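Page header: ASSEMBLY MODEL / two components / 669 residues total.
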Amino acid sequence: MKKLSSALVAACLLLIPAAVQAQEYDVPQNPPTTVVVPETVEPVTVAEPVAAPEPVAAPEPVVAPEPVVEVEEVQAVSEPKVKEKKVKEKKVKEKKEKVVKEKKSKKEKTYGLVNHLGVGVTGGVMDGLGVTAAVPLGGHFQVRGTYSVGIPDNIYNLSYTIPDMGSYEVQGRTVQLKDITVKGTIPSDLSAYLDFYLSKKGNFHITVGLNGLMSGDNYLGASADISKPLKQAFPEEDDYSTLFIQFNDDAAGVKAEIAPDKDGIINLDVKTAATSIRPYFGIGWGRVCNIRSWLSMNLEFGLQKVDGIRIVGYDSKGEQQHHFTSGMFDNKDSFEAPVIGKVENFLDKAAAGELPYIKGFMPVVRLGIQIRLF
Amino acid sequence: MKLYSKILLVAVATVSALAMVSCNKDNGKDEAEATFEAPEYADAAKTVTITDSQNAVSIDGQEVSEFEFTESGYAVITLNKKTKADSENGVIIAPYTYSNGVYTIEGFGTIKIENGKLVVTTNSGNTVTVTATVSESTTPSEGSTEWNLCRAWTLVDFKISVKGGSLGSTGVGKLFTNPKMSVIKAWLVEQKVNIPEDVVLENYDVVDINFTSNGTFFINFSKADPFVGAWDIKSNSFHYELSSGGNYIFNGSADGNISFKKENNIDVCVFTVNGEIVNGNDKYTSEIVLTMKAK
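Prediction written out in full:
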């Protein structure tokens, strides 16, 4: 405002002397067309020269006052300028936020040292259902832990009915083992793995780890329901756990008493012969912490080392007995059974670690579905 | 990110805790140790041997040579042989009570020990004073096998297994929670373990089994005379030798094992006895496992 005023004043000041000069040197608008010159020419008295008018001093330059930034006054003076400033500030802010977001996004899209956590569920052939959690150690490594709960009955019943297992003389009575339901169980377990990814952002991995961190020497379980044959052979009994068979290996000096439980179910456990911790090696595809997607899958194939297995049963009071040895089945005359020879052979090989598939190793197949929490 | 770090820390700690639990986990059944208090008559237990050559204490015409007052409240009265032809001494076992220095033996009378002499007053009113040697029973150190064992026991259950003969090396067995010898005999017969008919096992229902710190072992039965003998433990192996009695179930002598544990919250003694059942050409080996609780 002041600038405008000053400009106007300056303009006025400049115009005034011009107007004044214009009045003193009044040039007739319409110069005469003829001039009558008398005959006698009298000496023309030269008029006294008209004194030149005194020069008008140039007006002092107007110094523009210093601009004073007063918003109200500016707004009051010019709203478009203000709005322009606000827009600029908003854009700067947005730009900053964008930069931060991009940085964060960039960080999220890389595998750093424990900068992500993924959790999920797994299902495996030898360990059943479980939950898993993992964190990355850079792009090439991932540390993973899995807790397996086996296979609950309400999800899948691992059972099989054997139509005829033969007849046995037991406790002075004939027991016909027909339509025997055999059920498998998988104990709960804790495993720890280290996954090595060939590519920093790739999914193919080689895994090493340890199974059996929580299951002790429990490897698998099995049960056989012989309640019906027992009921036929021993109708007066209401507690079948009182009946037991004693397997003796006189050469080794060991024995095992095996009894069903009160309801007539024989429980057997498959236990690892040596150390309970089973080394594991596998290959797979997928990451528990996948930066490309919050939801991912992991498929894995591997082998776990099992140094031999032992089969144990339980006595009338539910106490674990000595594991079965082939020497306990030597006397076929006293314990006729159609599969005794196969049992003996299996027990010998199992104790020596010569298991099916690959000597000393059991296959593992596992599929997992997981989400990246952050 | 701090929140996420905390979550991660909790997760790692959880996994670590699970791993530690797994390392310490005992795969078998956790068995708590059994503890036993001193028997009721531990302070009264002693052995009194009569040394008097002139006076005697007699029961049914037999002279008493020794009174053993056991920790379990039984008096084991050893009788001299009636005649030299007798193969063994007689033994009478009767409960006693002790109060104010006086032993009262059920069905016999009272005994008071004074200055190395026994003052014996029978129920019929006769009193005799005899000289005697008194040996105090050595109290075992608390918690030792002897401390736990030396008392009276009653049966919780009776498990028997037999093998051999027609059964072969694979034995059969049964657990009897209400052990009656008549039922056990019937079961043995069903397993083709031939027991002669004149062997009346039915009279041998066990009332209690006793071990004393003096080394005496005896079993009281419901309808039969007690089996009496001696026990010892050498190199962690239990052995007993009966001086009177013995049958197909409790042989005249046997090796076995003694252990103690808690079962169903009861402090029990597991008494394992190996034996033989021989009848003619049939020979079976048996294993009897008695689970007993302190009386």
